[in-house]
Amino acid sequence: RKKMVFISTGSSNFDTLLCGGIETQSITEVFGEFRTGKTQLVHTVCVTAQLPKSMGGGQGKVIYIDTECTFRPERIKKIAERFDLDPEKTLENILVAEAWTVDRLNQLISQAAGLMMEDTFSLVVVDSIMAPFRVDFSGRGELSERQQVLGKTLSRLHKIAEQFNVAVFMTNQVMADPGMNAAYAVDPKKPIGGNIMAHASTTRLYLRKGRGEQRVCKIFDSPLIAEGECVFQITDGGIAD
Ligand code: ATP
Ligand code: MG
Question: Is the CB of residue 119 less than 8 Å from the CB of residue 61?
């Protein structure tokens, strides 16, 4: 069995909370309301994943599955500069593909496995995991079918995480705000995807806004890490203390 690697978030407070960073061989899920920094966080980790292991990196390439059309090359270049990496090379090492449907998402996961047999990767990002499932299974009666298909996709992601010693880092949405729709009489701070998602994610991180550009991360559900929270910032150079 290969040695687990911890990839830095860009914030030492955050890394301390995670006992080192985003770990390989497992699935980490980050959820929170809009603009809490989920996409900025995964962008930062796309860059740190390429750093040498001695610098908190994963020393590998990245696969980024974009389901919300929010991947921004300009942000990657800025973050690369902060870590003294060549912006263009850093961008080239991130293979980005869009997925609007569950079929496409599954196809990309299979292709990712193929690529990992040829080259060294350290990270797979899915931003966000539930978007294609929400599109493909929008009816109420389709929920149990959706969950079944979701379970299969997540188990494939788990398999590649273990087989290729990569971190799978996915973002997730929260339940709609009850104030916006009376039909959702639920906790708005709940990640979607139900029990299937809860069981698949080894580490679940909940982000919320703090003061100004400050954000707070709370460990939501982890068998290994003690509950706790940390404060970090979103900067031009990515996530920082
Ligand atoms: P959504 O649920 O809508 O996808 P998200 O959690 O992915 O939201 P992000 O897009 O990661 O949210 O975060 C957006 C926030 O990041 C902005 O509101 C802004 O505060 C901050 N931000 C974005 N770019 C920069 C930058 N260059 N410098 C500083 N802060 C930035
Ligand atoms: Mg986002």
Answer: yes
Q: With a 6 A CB cut-off, is 145 part of the ligand 1 pocket? A: no
* Cross-strand partners of 208: 216
How far apart, in whole angstroms, are the C-alpha atoms of residue 40 and residue 83?
15
Residue count of the chain: 241
| Pocket flag, ligand 1, residue 86 (CB < 6 Å) | no
C-alpha 2 – ligand 2 centre gap (Å): 32
What does pTM read for this prediction? 0.95
CA 82 – CA 128 distance, rounded (Å): 25
Q: Give 229's strand partners.
A: 218
Give tens-digit pLDDT for 137-188.
988 789 999 999 999 999 999 999 999 999 999 999 998 765 555 454 455 5
ipTM of the complex: 0.98
pLDDT tens digit string along 130-146? 999 999 998 878 999 99
Both tokens of 22, joined, read 């985003």
Which of 167, 155, 86 is closest to 121 using CA atoms?
Answer: 167
